[in-house]
Write a structure and sequence with these properties.
Keywords: Signal. With about 130 residues, the chain is α+β, with helices and mostly antiparallel strands. The chain has 1 helix and 8 strands; from the N terminus they run H-E-E-E-E-E-E-E-E.
């Protein structure tokens, strides 16, 4: 009976850990002072989704490593690759079930950056699954 209880505890713990490592869902984003919504679909670390800023909806593609907590994705905001934005960040939690991400993104001059300042900061809080 003790072994059965121990196995139940371990299985429950592992399911909670793997569920917490999923970054799929809706995220409220602040990228260089601009608020947006990021909707991520996570398929075993392969990411697809939508970045919604004002009236624009841009596709995203990227990767997420649950072992390192690193997320990398490209915001495809136009037909030309020079207008894409490249995001890298880290998943983290506080003492609550909340999930957060923070990092930096590169925006070349055609996508809002400047020659002397192509790197910007961003952070996000998960709002729903």
């Amino acid at each position: 009976m003790k072994i059965y209880i121990l196995i139940c505890i371990i299985v429950t713990y592992l399911s909670l850990v793997s569920a917490a490592d999923s970054i799929g869902g809706k995220w409220g984003v602040n990228a260089n002072g601009h608020n947006a919504l990021l909707v991520i679909e996570d398929r075993n670390g392969i990411l697809n989704g939508t970045y919604i800023y004002e009236d624009a909806k841009n596709d995203i593609i990227g990767t997420y490593s649950s072992s390192s907590g690193v997320i990398s994705f490209i915001r495809i905001n136009g037909d030309r690759p020079s207008t894409y934005q490249f995001y890298t960040g880290y998943l983290f939690r506080d003492n609550t079930p909340n999930q957060y991400m923070a990092g930096s993104f590169t925006a070349l001059p055609p996508s809002g950056g400047e020659v002397n300042r192509p790197l910007f900061g961003w952070f996000a809080k998960k709002t729903s699954k």
